[in-house]
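User: Fold this, then the next.

Assistant: Folding the first:
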Amino acid sequence: MDNDAICCFLSAYIILEQFMILFRRRRYVLYLRLKDNVQTKSLYCRVNLKIPILVRFFCDEDTKPDFRLSRESLARLLHLLNQDRRHGWGATIETLVFLFWLASGTSYRVVSRVFGMPRSTVHSIVHRVTEEVVDIRHQVIHLPKTEEDLNSVSRGFAGLAHHRAFVKAVGAIDGCHIRIKCPSGPHGQCYRNRKLFPSIILQAVSDHQGRFIDTYVGWPGSVHDSRVLRHSPLYRQSVYPPPGHFILADGGYPCLQQPLPLITPYKRPLQGVGAQRFNNHHSKARSIIERAFGMMKTRFRSIFLQALEVHHTFVPHVSTGLVFQFVQYLSIYLSIYLSIYLGHNSMCHPSQHLPWSR
């Protein structure tokens, strides 16, 4: 019996030793994947590889439940940021922390527990990566820069409206309220909108596919949409749309010809069948901006369905980061769709100058 017990003990010990070797090898492989360049970078900090969210990410599992973005969108975001970290946690980990905070809408304390890092570090990472995203936003959120892109947008709006009269429409504009915590002080009530909750206004223009091509954010929720428009760079600079084209807007905006051509629906009561038919076609084309806001709110519902727990001066940067993530996700989705069903890629690299602003 003693010999049998010794043999069983040795067998169990050998199996356990082999298991520990495989476990250490797997953990080492994960550690190497966390490092961008092992030969040139010194070890500043060690990432805890037992954290479930990092294990799921580096084991090629689905990233949408944790970060609300596909793996292709994450890869493109890391490529656009292209930040070479000489110290700290590395660009990959910092981007994951930022995206998890953005996707979950939770506090810095919860994010610090999820990633196993100090709360002050999470605060610094979120603010730093947000500033980096804001700096590169024009690489994703931009106006049509070629005649081909402009004609594509025009034909798209004519198709949405089901009428050739809208072939000169090159955008749809609207505003969206982002919930915030009411700022303290005498001016806090200025942020309460008509629905009686504090917010900051995000004005956006989308193309016929629901991709945002221009954003302007920062005004308190009590300000009217027309006032926000008059102070926006889109209105003051008069760069877009080009001559002969116009942007669709709802009844909250004025119908303008200069400096920004805006076409709004007829006011009620409607006079005649022609006005009613025009409003119907107008609504079909303009509703793409409302659907774009709806898709963005669904993608980042934790941010839009509760108040942002940050200072109200930081909300415009967070809002721009949200639009950035949504546009790059939608761009990848549309490019895959077009490449499969239409046989070409819709992601183009336009020229540097607008043809109508030279």
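Now the next one, as you asked:
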Amino acid sequence: MSATPFESLEKTLEKHIPPEELKEVKRIMFGKDTKTIELPQCAVEAAAERGFDLQGSAFSASVEQLRQPRIVRVGLIQNQIVLPTDAPVIEQITALHKRVGEIVEVAAMCGVNIICFQEAWTMPFAFCTREKVPWTEFAESAEEGQTTRFCQELARKYNVVVVSPILERDEVHGETLWNTAVVISNSGSVLGKTRKNHIPRVGDFNESTYYMEGNTGHRVFQTQFGKIAVNICYGRHHPLNWFMYSVNGAEIIFNPSATVGELSEPMWPIEARNAAIANHCFTCAINRVGMEHFKNEFTSGDGKKAHTDFGHFYGSSYVAAPDGSRTPGLSRTRDGLLVAEMDLNLTRQISDKWSFKMTGRYEMYAEELAKVVQHDFKANIIKE
């Protein structure tokens, strides 16, 4: 990472490339141009007062003869932690509720229907430390915890579906911890929850110290505004994970994440966009922002010097469409709200055009994968 982080890739390109060339560069890098949404002035002013990046983009679809447009607005929120990591747990949670709540208010001004927060949004991403205390104290019930109750209030107040990724304490099953996303209907009821399928064991990401792979499969939630799924963080590196949400009917797949520049930033613009193309759906990549410093040093298991921070969480949240287009990313350095308007009819239109689902050889893959997972599997290699 650069010693002086730049605001965003898009702004750097706009600063240094002539307009006509820039148009072609963006076409190649980002696909079909998205339309900038003119957001309400009250929202623009509130975002400026509250100190966060506000952007709006729209994806279009062709007009159909038999179906009306299915217009949905989603909101992605990225943010830094508010208090130091050694502040009392309840004060950290309360401060984050307040910060995210004031951004949700602006999302409501912008007509957002579904909103998603970043991974483990109520706490520092402390899973690098391998310390149990105080980090396990941030865990709470997915159904009845204070964060779920807070989100239920937001859902009812603003008529919005809320996707709330938290550290879950499963009180029914021995108070086990899980990395979980709670989905709350715009009615205010808890529609359900889904757990993180893939757990990283790379560098400072030592998450299996706290929780293991999820056991909820690839759930898709039918909301008033469309069928949604949540592919939490590390699952974005696994193409079959996206695929299984898609075959279960997801039209929008959210990817709430917490990832740092040195590790993953070159992959970030590619993975969710590729998943949108491959699975004929919309994908929404959300990443937290800033540096989080911890009291005690920890090591990465790579022989390098001990340190007290994870690295720079680079934000850059964006939405990608099934036609390969994508929105500009939010800031790399600031809190932000991205509003994206989409016509869900585009998912079937692109499926009809490219036919990836029709031409996929799923029965062949399933047969061969069934053999691969057996202990006596032999690779299909032809030798002289």
